[in-house]
TFIIS-type domain-containing protein (Eragrostis curvula), 79 residues
Amino acid sequence: MSGTNFVYRNVMDHTAGEFTQVLYDDVTSDPTLPRTKSVHCAACGHGEAVFFQATARGEEGMTVLFVCANPSCGHRWRD
């Protein structure tokens, strides 16, 4: 994508007590999320994943979640 000058913005407005749900099918196409090539998917072996931080159900604190960048896979795991 060199030579392009796009700026992406992802705005989320929430009210107190509202939960954010991650739609895993959408995260691999979101250009605002970081990607890494330092992990390999255990399901398909693909060498790229999208990652982000979120709270896990029933747990306190944040955890790093990975989603395989292979469009035909979509396997999810956490660090």
Remarks:
- The chain has a mean pLDDT of 80.
